[in-house]
C-alpha cells in the first residue's frame, strides 16, 4: 500500500512515457492502477499482429492503428477519469524539445533501441528531468535511474564493443551453428540476392569444366541457358561441394580440426527431369511476400528438424521461388527475420553447411532466432520491469535519493530471489554527455572531408540529429529548416572540402565545437592530425577517444580480427540496432545474498547494452560463466579500476 506522501506525489505528477510496446503496455496499466493521473505517451509505431501476444492492451482489430492512441483508449476503459495524452510520433521529432520535456516530473523509457534511449537521456539532462530507463531480453531485464548531477547518466558507462566473428571462421572453419548462419545470411544470401557491388568473401571462382572457358565469370550469375533447377543445383554444388574441396586442399588448416565433407546435390537429391516440380507452382501463387518454400514442399512445422535431404530441397525451392516470384527485389534484398522465404533459404543453407562440418542441425524456428538475434520476449519480465519502473518513479518524485536502485532481473533466481537491486553511481566525470569532458579525434586533416567527420563522428558516434559545427566563431556546418539558401549552399560546399581547406581551416591543434540544438548537447573535440590509419583496425580512417562506444551504432560485420577493443575476439552477429542484447548468468547464489552489501569497487557486466555494476566483493563469491553460444553470452568488462566510480552518497 502506498503511503499518504507517496499517493500525493503520484497524484500531483505529470509523467512522460516513451514507448508503448512490450514494457510500455505493462507500464501504462501499472501507472494507471497505481494512481497516476496525468500521463503522456510517445510511440511512433502502429500495432502489428506479432505484438498481440504480449502487448495486452491491443487486440486484433487494432492492427495498423497507433500504439500510443490505442493504449490510451484501452486504459481509459478501466480508469476513465485520468488524463492520458498520446503522441503517435518519433521522440526524436523537433516538437519534443527541451521545453516539452521540462513540463514533466519524470520520464519513463520503454524503448527498444539505443539511438532513441541516448536521445531521451540527453533531453532529460538538458531539461533537468529525471529519467527511469528500462530494458528486457527474454528473462533478463533492468531498471535504472538517471538524475542529473546525482547519478550516472545513461551514457556514463562504456558499452561493450560490437562482436564480430573472424572472417576465416565464417568462410572456412565454422565450429558452431551460428557461424553457419552468419555465412548463409551475410555471405551467401547477400551474394545471391543483395547488392552485387557489396564486398563479399565468398569464393566465386570455379575450375568447374563448364565455366573454365569463361574464366572471369562470377559463378553466382545465372546463365542464359539455365533453368532455376539447374542454376540452384550449380550454386549448391559450388558452395557446398567444390568450395569445400578447395578448402580441403590446404592440409595445414585441418591438422587440428575435423575435416569437412563436400556435399553435392547428386549425393543428396535424385535428379529430377527438367520442369518437373510436382504441385509446387500451384502452392505459391499470390502475394510475393507470402511465398514459402516450406509451404510448397508441404513442410508444416517450423520446429521440426529437417534432414539433409529436406534442407537441400528447401534450399533449391527457396532459391527457385526468389527468382520466380520475387525477381524484382533481387539485387537489393537484405536479410530480414520477418521475410519467410529469406529465413527458409538461410536456415537450409546454414544446415547444409552445418552437416558438411558435422555441426548439429537446427530447426527453422531456432535458426530464425539466431539469424535475427532474437531472444523471445517474455511478458512476465516486462510486467516485473514495469512494476520496478513505477517504484523508482515514485522514489524520484519524492526525491528519495538514498533509496534509488538500479535493479536487475536475473535469468536464474536462487535463494528465492529473482531481482538484484544495486545502488546507483555518481556521474562519470569523463562522460562527454553529462560532464563537459572534451573528446579527441585523430584524423587526417589533409584527406578527410567535412562530410566524413559529420557522418562518421557527429552522427554515427555522437548520435546527434541536428548538428552544428563551429571552429571558434566560424560556423562550418549547420542543419535546420530556417536556413537561407546561400547558407545551405555554403554548408553543402563545405561538406565536400577536406578539413584543412575549409574557410576556417581545421588542422592539428584545432578545437571544434559540436552542438546538437535539439538535444542541447555541446561538446569540444580536440583535433589531432594523423596521416596513416590501419585499414583493418581503423576502417573509418579516424579515431575518436573519450567517446562511449555504443553497440547500436555499429552494423553487423564479419571481420578479420574483430574490432580493436578489449573484447575483440568475442563475436556475435548483430543485425540491427535493437539486437544488442547480452545475457549474464550468475551461477552462485551468494551473489544474490551479497546484493546489498556492495562497495564502491566494481566490475561491470553488460546486460542489454547497459552496464550492470557488481562489486568485487560479490565477484569473489561468484562464478561468472563464459559461453558464446547465441543466447548465453556472458561478458565481463575488463576494467577493474576500483576508483573508477563512486556510489551516490
Ligand atoms: N524513436 C522512437 N520514438 C518513439 N517510439 C519509439 C522510438 N523507438 C522505439 N519506439 C517504440 O518503442 C517500443 C518498444 O517496444 P518493444 O520493445 O516491445 O518493441 P516492438 O516493436 O513493439 O516489438 P518487437 O520489436 O519485439 O516486435 C515500440 O513500440 C516502438 O515503436
Ligand atoms: Zn554521463
TrEMBL record:
Residue spans crossing the bilayer: none
Keyword Nucleotide-binding: yes
Domain Ubiquitin/SUMO-activating enzyme ubiquitin-like: 441-533
Principal subcellular localization: nucleus
UniProt binding sites for Zn(2+): 153, 156, 431, 434
Pathway assigned in UniProt: Protein modification; protein sumoylation
Polar residues bias: start-end ranges: 559-573
SUPFAM superfamilies per record: Activating enzymes of the ubiquitin-like proteins
One GO term (biological process): protein sumoylation
InterPro entries cross-referenced by the UniProt entry: ThiF/MoeB/HesA, ThiF_NAD_FAD-bd, UAE_UbL_dom, Ub-E1_IAD_1, Ub_act_enz_dom_a_sf, Uba2, Ubiquitin-activating_enz
GO cellular component: cytoplasm; SUMO activating enzyme complex
Positions annotated as active site in the UniProt record: 168 (glycyl thioester intermediate)
Source species, domain of life: Eukaryota
Name the record gives this protein: SUMO-activating enzyme subunit
Lineage: Eukaryota, Viridiplantae, Streptophyta, Embryophyta, Tracheophyta
Amino acid at each position: 500500500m502506498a503511503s499518504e506522501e507517496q499517493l500525493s506525489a503520484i497524484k500531483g505528477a505529470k509523467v512522460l512515457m516513451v514507448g508503448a510496446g512490450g514494457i510500455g503496455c505493462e507500464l501504462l496499466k501499472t501507472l494507471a492502477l497505481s494512481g497516476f493521473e496525468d500521463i503522456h505517451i510517445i510511440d511512433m509505431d502502429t500495432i502489428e499482429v506479432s505484438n498481440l501476444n504480449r502487448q495486452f492492451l491491443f487486440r486484433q482489430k487494432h492492427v495498423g492503428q497507433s500504439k500510443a492512441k490505442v493504449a490510451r483508449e484501452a486504459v481509459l476503459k478501466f480508469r476513465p477519469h485520468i488524463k492520458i495524452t498520446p503522441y503517435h510520433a518519433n521522440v526524436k521529432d523537433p516538437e519534443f524539445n527541451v521545453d516539452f520535456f521540462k513540463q514533466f516530473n519524470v520520464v519513463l523509457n520503454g524503448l527498444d533501441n539505443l539511438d532513441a534511449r541516448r536521445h531521451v537521456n540527453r533531453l532529460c539532462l538538458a531539461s533537468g528531468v529525471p529519467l527511469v530507463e528500462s530494458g528486457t531480453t527474454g528473462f533478463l531485464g533492468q531498471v535504472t535511474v538517471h538524475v542529473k548531477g546525482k547519478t550516472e547518466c545513461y551514457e556514463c558507462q562504456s558499452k561493450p564493443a560490437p562482436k564480430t566473428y573472424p572472417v576465416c571462421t565464417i568462410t572456412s572453419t565454422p565450429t558452431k551453428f551460428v557461424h553457419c548462419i552468419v555465412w548463409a545470411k551475410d555471405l551467401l544470401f547477400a551474394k545471391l540476392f543483395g547488392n552485387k557491388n557489396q564486398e563479399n568473401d565468398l569464393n566465386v571462382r570455379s575450375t568447374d569444366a563448364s565455366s573454365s572457358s569463361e574464366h572471369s565469370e562470377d559463378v553466382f550469375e545465372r546463365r542464359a541457358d539455365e533453368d532455376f533447377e539447374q542454376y540452384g543445383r550449380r550454386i549448391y554444388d559450388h558452395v557446398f561441394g567444390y568450395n569445400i574441396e578447395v578448402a580441403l586442399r590446404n592440409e595445414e588448416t585441418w591438422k587440428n580440426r575435423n575435416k569437412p565433407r563436400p556435399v553435392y546435390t547428386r549425393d543428396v537429391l535424385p535428379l529430377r527431369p527438367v520442369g518437373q516440380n510436382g504441385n509446387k507452382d500451384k502452392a505459391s501463387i499470390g502475394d510475393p511476400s507470402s511465398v514459402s518454400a516450406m509451404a510448397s514442399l508441404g513442410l508444416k512445422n517450423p520446429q521440426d528438424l529437417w534432414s539433409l535431404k529436406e534442407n537441400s530441397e528447401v534450399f533449391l525451392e527457396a532459391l527457385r521461388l526468389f527468382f520466380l516470384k520475387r525477381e524484382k527485389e533481387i539485387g537489393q534484398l537484405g536479410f530480414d527475420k520477418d521475410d519467410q522465404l529469406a529465413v527458409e533459404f538461410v536456415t537450409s543453407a546454414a544446415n547444409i553447411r552445418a552437416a558438411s562440418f558435422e555441426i548439429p542441425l537446427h530447426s527453422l524456428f531456432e535458426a530464425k532466432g539466431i539469424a535475427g538475434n532474437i531472444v523471445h520476449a517474455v511478458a512476465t519480465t516486462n510486467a516485473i520491469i514495469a512494476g520496478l519502473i513505477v517504484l523508482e518513479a515514485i522514489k524520484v518524485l519524492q526525491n528519495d535519493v538514498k533509496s534509488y536502485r538500479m535493479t536487475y532481473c536475473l535469468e536464474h533466481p536462487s535463494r528465492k530471489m529473482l531481482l538484484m537491486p544495486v545502488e546507483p553511481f555518481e556521474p562519470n566525470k569523463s562522460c562527454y554527455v553529462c560532464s563537459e569532458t572534451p573528446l579527441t579525434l585523430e584524423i587526417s586533416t589533409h584527406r578527410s572531408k567535412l562530410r566524413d567527420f559529420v557522418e562518421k563522428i557527429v552522427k554515427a558516434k555522437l548520435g546527434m540529429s541536428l548538428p552544428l559545427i563551429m571552429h571558434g566563431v566560424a560556423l562550418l556546418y549547420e542543419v535546420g529548416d530556417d536556413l537561407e539558401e546561400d547558407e545551405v549552399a555554403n554548408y553543402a560546399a563545405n561538406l565536400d572540402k577536406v578539413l584543412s581547406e575549409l574557410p576556417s581551416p581545421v588542422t592539428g591543434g584545432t578545437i571544434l565545437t559540436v552542438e546538437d540544438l535539439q538535444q542541447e548537447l555541446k561538446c569540444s573535440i580536440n583535433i589531432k592530425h594523423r596521416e596513416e590509419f590501419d585499414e583493418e583496425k581503423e576502417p573509418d580512417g579516424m579515431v575518436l577517444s573519450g567517446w562511449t562506444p555504443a553497440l547500436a551504432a555499429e552494423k553487423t560485420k564479419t571481420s578479420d580480427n574483430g574490432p580493436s577493443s578489449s573484447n575483440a575476439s568475442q563475436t556475435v552477429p548483430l543485425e540491427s540496432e535493437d539486437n544488442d542484447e547480452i545475457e549474464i548468468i550468475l551461477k552462485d547464489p551468494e551473489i544474490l545474498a551479497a546484493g546489498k552489501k556492495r562497495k564502491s569497487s566494481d566490475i561491470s557486466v553488460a546486460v542489454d547494452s547497459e552496464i550492470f555494476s557488481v562489486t568485487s566483493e560479490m565477484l569473489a563469491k561468484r562464478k561468472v560463466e563464459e559461453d558464446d553460444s547465441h543466447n548465453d553470452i556472458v561478458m565481463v568488462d575488463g576494467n577493474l579500476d576500483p576508483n573508477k566510480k563512486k556510489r551516490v552518497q
